[in-house]
Amino acid sequence: MPQRPHPAASPPPSPQGGGEGAAPPVLRLSGVTKRFGPLLANDAISFELARGEVVALLGENGAGKTTLMNILFGHYVADEGAVEVFGKPLPPGDPRAALEAGIGMVHQHFTLAENMTVLENIALGTQGFLNWKLDRIGARERIEKLSWEFGLAVDPAARVASLSVGERQRVEILKALYRDARILILDEPTAVLTPAETDALFATLKLLVGQGLSIIFISHKLNEVMSVSDRVLVLRSGRLAGERVTAGTSRSELAALMVGQEVVSPPVPPPEPGQLQLVLNAVSTARRGAGVTLDRISLSLRGGEITGLAGVSGNGQAALAALISGVEAPASGEIIVRGNLAKNWSPRAALSAGIGRIPEDRHAVGTIGDMSVTENVIAERYRTSRFSRRGFLDWRAARKFAEEIIADYDVKCPSPEARIRLLSGGNMQKLILGRALDSAPSVILANQPTRGLDVGAVGYVHGKLLEARARGAAILLISEDLEEILALSDRIIVMSKGRLSAASPRGERTVAQLGALMAGHDMEAA
Amino acid sequence: MEALDILLTASFWVAAIRIASPLIFATMGELICERAGVLNLGIEGIMTAGAFAGWFTVYAGGDLWTGVLVAALAGAMFGLLHATLTVPLGLSQHVVGIGVTLLATSLTYFTYRLALPEVTSPPKIEPFQPLPIPGLSDIPVVGPALFNQTPLTYLAFLTVALTAWVLYRTPLGLAIRAAGENPSAVEAQGISVTAIRMGAVMAGSALMAVGGAFLTMSAFNSFFFEMINGRGWICIALVVFGSWRPGKALIGAILFAAFDAYQVRLQQLSGGVVPYQIFLMMPYALSILALILVARRATYPKALMVPYQKGER
C-alpha cells in the first residue's frame, strides 16, 4: 500500500472571516507553572490563541518564553496547569501527542540531522517503522507542493549540512507543515536571519495565516513584534506582565512592559582622547582554514575613546579579535602596547598587557558551560597571587570575587557554585563583563557584546562600556549591528575582506557611505 | 614471485572470506550501535558469549540454527544491559562497554566450567558444512571463495545488504541515523530516542554474538578460552575504517582478513628466517596504516557517545 504521509489532524473548518472573538480558541493554556530547582521559569500562565491569529510572545531573555513553548510541545512537563488544543486536553511531556494535535515548533536551535537530506529530515517519524521502504516519491511530491505553496524554496535532495541558516529554517517550517500543523510556534525565528530572509519569512507567515493557521511568534525584537503580530503577550520573570492588541500599543509601551520600567538609552558625553594604548602596525596573519586573514592592517586605539569596527560578518573580524586577544600571533607587522613593542604575543601576554576581552561567542569561547560561576570568573586570572598561592587555588578569595561580581553587575544566578550554562545569555554576559572590567583594563576588546541580548541587557552593556570609556580605557567595539556602532563609537572603521578603512569621526560618514565601504567599494580611496 | 602467486590461489581467498565472516557480523553490529549514537565496547565480551552460547546449544543437543538463534539472544541480553546503563541512565559508554566485555567474558568462562567441570580437551560438535551454490561455485577462484562457503558466511553477506537497506531505505533507518547525529531531531518528530537507541544496541549486540558463534560453529568446531582474541576490537576499527558505511566496512573486513590469511602463507614461505611474530603483526600494522590514510577524513556520527536526556536544560 502506498504510504500517505501522516494523516491530517485538522480541526473542523470554521467559517472564514468570522469575528475572531466568536470562534472557539484553538489553544488554551491555563495556570501553567514550571520550576527548575529554585528558579520559577513560568508562573501560572494562562492565555488563548484563536484561529488565524498571530500572537507574539515578547520578553527578555530568561523571561520564560522558550520554557513555556517547550511545555506546549512536550519537551518539558509542567509542574502545574493544563493545555487544551482544539478543546481537547493535551497529554503532558509527549512531543508525539503535540504533533498529532497539530502543534508544530520551529526551535531556536534547529533540530535537524546534518548528515541527512532535507527530505529525510522532514519524513523522519512520519512513516511507520514497519515499512520495508521509505516512500521518497510521495514525500518529495508533498514537500515540493508545500514549498511552492508557501514560498519555502529548498531542494529536498540537498544535505542539511550544505544549507544556509535561512534554508535550514525553511526546512524546519516545512517539517511542521508536512505534518499538517495548525498551530505553528516559532522560537526567535529572526535571530539568525538576514534582513531579506526575515522579509521572506514574514511573507510566508502571512500565507500560513491566510490558510487558517495560528502562529505563536517568540521574540524580543520590538519592531518585528509590531509588524508581524495581531496581539502581544509580554512575559517578565516568568509571569504574564501584560497583554495588548498590537494595533493599540506602541514600541515604548511594550518595552516598558518587558523590563518593568521606561528604557532610556545612555547619553554619550563628548570624548576626551587620551594616550595611545594599543597600536597595530601593518599586521598580517597567517592563513588558517577557510577564514579571512588580516592583510597589513594598521589600527591605533586611544584611551577614552570607543572605536567602532563595522562590517559584514566574516570579513576578518574574527581574525582581528583573535589577534588582539592573543589567540593568534602576527605573521608580520608589529603590535605596540603603550609604546613598547610586544614580543611573543600570546593570550597570557595580551592579558598582562591589560587587554580585557569580551568574546564573540559566550557559550563556546567566553565560558566553560559545565564549570561553576566561580571557576569561570577566575578563569583568566587564577594564576595571580590573588587567587592562588604556591600552586594551590584560594577558593575563599575566588568565591568572594564571584560574589562581588554577582552583586556589582546584578547577575541573576542561584549561587556561585551553579554551573554557568544554567544562566541566561544576558546574565552570562554580565559575568563576562564583570570578569573583563574588574581589573580596570586599559584596552577593551568588545566583540559583538550585545548579540542575542534583550533590550534591558543591551542598555546595561552599553552603559558599562561608556563607564569604562569615561575611566580612560581604549575600547574596540566590533559589531555587525550598524545602529550600535553609530550610537556608541567616537570613530568608525570599516572592515572588508581582511582590510581596514581609514577611521572617520562620529557623524562624518553617512550610513550609505559606510554601507558602500562594508560592501568593499573604494577601500583604497577611503 | 611465489609471494604474489599466493594471491591467485583459490585456497587463499577461501580462507580470507572465512576469516572475514565473523568480522562482518560483528562490524555490522557495532556499526548499527554507533549509527544510533552508542559506542559498544562490550563487543569483545559479547562475541565470546555468543561463541559459547551457540556452540553449547549444539553440544547439548540443539540443531545448528537453534544455536545461532540462542547466540543472538544471548547477545541481545548483554546489549540490553549495555543499553540500559548507557541510554536511559546516560552512563559513560567507555566504562560500561569495558565492564560488559569483562562481565560477558568471565560469565562465559564460568558457565563453561560449571557446565563441563570434568573436561580437559573441549568437546567437538558437528559444525556447519560448506554449501556449494550450484553453477556459481564452479567459477575458478571466485567460485570456491564466495560460493562454496558455509551458510553462515552467506548470512554474513546478507546481513551487510540488510543493514545497508534498513539504514538507508527505511523509515526506521532514518530514525537510527538521526539518533546518532542529532537526537533532538528525533524527539522533535515525536520518536523516542531511548527506544531507538536501545533497540539498535540490542540488535547490534545480537549480530556481534552471531559473529562469535561463527567461530565455534563454522570456522572451528569447539569452544576455547581466548578464542575471540581481539577480533571485537578490530571490528571497532573497521567501523571507523568504513566511515560508518556498511559497504565500506565490508571491504575493510575482507581486506583485513586477506592480510591475515596472507601472513599465514608468508610465514610458511619465509622458512623460519624471519620471526613469525613479524607476520602475525602485519595485519594489525597495516590496519593502523589504513586507518591513518582513510579515516582521517571520516565524518563520524555527531552524537556518538553523547548521552541524550530528555527535557534537560
Instruction: Report the top-level CATH class of the largest domain in chain A.
Output: Alpha Beta
The overall pLDDT of chain A, averaged over residues, is 86
The separation of the N and C termini of chain A measures 68 Å
Main beta-sheet strand count, sense and barrel state of chain B: none
Number of strands of chain A: 23
Q: Examine the secondary-structure arrangement and name the CATH architecture of chain B.
A: Orthogonal Bundle
Regions with little confidence, pLDDT below 50 for 5+ residues of chain B: none
Rounded mean pLDDT score of chain B? 92
DSSP, total strands of chain B: 0
Query: Domains counted in the coordinates of chain B: how many?
Result: 1
Number of helices of chain B: 13
Structural class of chain A: alpha/beta
The gyration radius over C-alpha positions of chain A equals: 25 Å
Largest sheet of chain A: 7 strands, mixed
Topology:
The complex is a heterodimer of chains A (526) and B (313).
Chain A: E1 27-36, E2 39-49, E3 54-59, H1 65-73, E4 80-85, E5 88-89, H2 95-100, E6 103-106, H3 118-123, H4 136-149, H5 165-178, E7 183-187, H6 195-210, E8 214-219, H7 222-228, E9 231-236, E10 239-245, H8 251-259, E11 276-284, E12 297-302, E13 305-310, H9 317-324, E14 332-337, E15 340-341, H10 347-352, E16 355-358, H11 362-366, H12 373-377, E17 388-389, E18 392-393, H13 395-408, H14 425-437, E19 443-447, H15 455-471, E20 474-478, H16 482-488, E21 491-496, E22 499-500, E23 504-505, H17 511-518
Parallel strand pairs in A: 3-8, 3-9, 6-7, 7-8, 13-20, 13-21, 16-19, 19-20
Antiparallel strand pairs in A: 1-2, 1-4, 4-5, 9-10, 11-12, 11-14, 14-15, 17-18, 21-22, 21-23
Helix pairs in contact in A: 14-15
Chain B: H1 2-5, H2 10-35, H3 43-59, H4 64-86, H5 93-115, H6 142-147, H7 151-169, H8 171-181, H9 183-188, H10 193-219, H11 231-241, H12 246-270, H13 276-295
Helix pairs in contact in B: 2-7, 2-10, 2-11, 2-12, 3-4, 3-5, 3-10, 3-11, 4-5, 4-10, 7-8, 8-10, 11-12, 11-13, 12-13
